[in-house]
């Protein structure tokens, strides 16, 4: 029982070190550029490998191979070609070239041990560890490769041609010259070289993966800080506008009240005392002028306080603008689809501006949350408008729904203000919502708001 717990603990530590507990995936950003670069690398390895084979042939290092002269070249070419896909299918290529190394080593040991092929095999295993997207599968594949390779070495020591023959010179055994016996020294040296070789590929690949993950996190943190800074700026502007709006309300309420009182007084005193009525009318004129002047000043402040573009006077988006929002998100590379369901032509455009704006903002917030806080690779947006009477919706409803196929991404929880805004819009318009994880996986944000009476 204790041994089982220890094994599980070791496996857990190994998976954590390999990144199997992380949802981050190292995916090439520019696939076409990656393929071109890797194709060039594969070509270079092929040419250098062919040159190495010819050099070895020239110094009679391949005379013991019982195959035609083109076979070693074929071995080099078949090893180099898969490198063109090393970052697209990293684990597959690492496994294939490890198998290639085993087959070549059994049939043509001298070719397998050539420097170009040794570097090629090392590079393939390094890439498999550095670029594997499924880290658990990487641990399994690399573990199998190491078991097979070291098992092969052990088999060579046990049933090969004989270490004594390998260490002999002209039929004479090497004398014991150093601190170690020749056989023990040979075995130890071979094992050490292979530990450095395979260990270097695995550790180097894992270090490259960790470095790439750290860079990605730094970029994401920088983007988060930038977004938070922009949000804080917008929040400050909104708070200032709310203050100005309250001032505007006070100004208008005050002056309208004064105008109402003075107008009533002027009406009562118009015939009994024209001088008092005239004074009241002058007071009305003064109050109205003051109100207009102060309103112009406050509205001018509101118009000039937009940090994005003070000259932007575009109307607020409405429900039909959801199409443009989906297209904008799709242009960033995220897979998002849209379905629009109307019970009659033009129903979407007929939705009132406040309802349409609230639903548009709901879709905008939901898609932003999917991209920032979810592992989803795609999302689906539905927009529905129906005038059929429903419980709680006597005049029909307008509805938006955003669903995705992901799960929450660790360490990316938001402030919650976005969903709070969605719920505030619901309370304002008397709608209903369904926000949360789906039973079948993924997340759903669905908001339904009532339509007004048809005119």
Topology:
Elements: H1 2-18, H2 31-58, H3 70-80, H4 90-107, H5 109-112, H6 115-131, H7 135-159, H8 163-166, H9 182-269, H10 274-304, H11 322-331, E1 335-342, H12 347-350, H13 353-373, E2 378-386, E3 397-404, H14 417-429, E4 432-437, E5 443-450
Parallel strand pairs: 1-2
Antiparallel strand pairs: 2-3, 3-5, 4-5
Kindly list the characteristics that best describe this protein.
455 residues; alpha+beta; 5-stranded mixed beta sheet; 14 helices; elongated
Report on the architecture of this protein.
With 455 residues, this protein is α+β, with helices and mostly antiparallel strands. The chain has helices at residues 2-18, 31-58, 70-80, 90-107, 109-112, 115-131, 135-159, 163-166, 182-269, 274-304, 322-331, 347-350, 353-373, 417-429; strands at 335-342, 378-386, 397-404, 432-437, 443-450. The chain has a 5-stranded mixed beta sheet, with helices on one face. The longest helix is centred in the middle third of the chain and has 88 residues, at 182-269.
Main sheet specs: 5 strands, mixed
- Mean pLDDT figure: 80
N- to C-terminal distance: 77 Å
The count of strands amounts to: 5
Q: How much of the residues is beta strand, in percent?
A: 5-15%
Structural class computed from helices and strand pairing: alpha+beta
Oligomer: single chain
Could you spell the SSE succession in H and E letters? HHHHHHHHHHHEHHEEHEE
Percent helix range? 55-70%
């Amino acid at each position: 029982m204790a041994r089982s717990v220890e094994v599980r603990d070791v496996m857990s530590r190994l998976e954590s070190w390999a990144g199997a507990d992380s949802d981050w995936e190292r995916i090439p950003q520019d696939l076409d550029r990656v393929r071109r670069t890797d194709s060039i690398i594969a070509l270079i390895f092929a040419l250098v490998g062919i040159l190495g084979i010819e050099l070895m042939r020239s110094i009679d290092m391949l005379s013991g191979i019982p195959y035609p002269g083109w076979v070693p070249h074929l071995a080099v070419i078949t090893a180099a070609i898969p490198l063109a896909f090393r970052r697209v299918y990293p684990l597959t290529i690492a496994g294939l070239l490890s198998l290639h190394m085993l087959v070549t080593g059994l049939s043509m040991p001298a070719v397998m041990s050539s420097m170009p092929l040794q570097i090629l095999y090392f590079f393939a295993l390094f890439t498999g560890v550095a670029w594997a997207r499924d880290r658990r599968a990487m641990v399994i594949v690399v573990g199998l490769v190491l078991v097979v390779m070291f098992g092969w070495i052990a088999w060579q020591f046990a049933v090969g041609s004989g270490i004594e023959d390998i260490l002999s010179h002209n039929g004479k055994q090497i004398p014991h010259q150093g601190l170690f016996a020749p056989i023990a020294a040979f075995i130890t040296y071979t094992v050490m070289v292979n530990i450095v070789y395979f260990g270097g590929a695995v550790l180097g690949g894992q270090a490259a993966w960790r470095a790439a993950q750290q860079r990605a996190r730094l970029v994401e943190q920088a983007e988060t800080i930038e977004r938070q800074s922009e949000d804080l700026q917008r929040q400050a502007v909104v708070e200032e506008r709310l203050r100005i709006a309250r001032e505007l309300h006070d100004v208008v309420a005050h002056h309208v009240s004064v105008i109402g009182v003075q107008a009533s007084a002027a009406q009562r005193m118009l015939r009994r005392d024209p001088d008092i009525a005239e004074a009241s009318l002058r007071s009305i004129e003064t109050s109205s002028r003051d109100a207009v002047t102060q309103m112009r000043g406050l509205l001018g402040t509101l118009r000039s306080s937009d940090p994005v573009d003070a000259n932007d006077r575009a109307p607020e988006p409405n429900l039909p603008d959801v199409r443009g929002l989906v297209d904008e998100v799709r242009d960033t590379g995220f897979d998002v689809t849209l379905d629009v369901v109307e019970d009659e032509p033009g129903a979407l455009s007929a939705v009132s501006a406040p309802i349409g704006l609230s639903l548009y903002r709901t879709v905008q917030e939901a898609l932003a949350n999917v991209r920032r806080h979810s592992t989803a690779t795609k999302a689906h947006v539905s927009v529905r408008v129906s005038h059929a009477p429903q419980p709680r919706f006597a005049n029909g409803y307008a509805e938006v729904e955003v669903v995705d196929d992901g799960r929450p991404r660790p360490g990316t929880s938001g402030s919650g203000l976005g969903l709070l805004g969605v719920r505030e819009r619901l309370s304002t318009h008397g709608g209903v919502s369904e926000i949360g994880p789906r039973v079948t996986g993924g997340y759903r944000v669905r908001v339904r708001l009532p339509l007004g009476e048809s005119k």
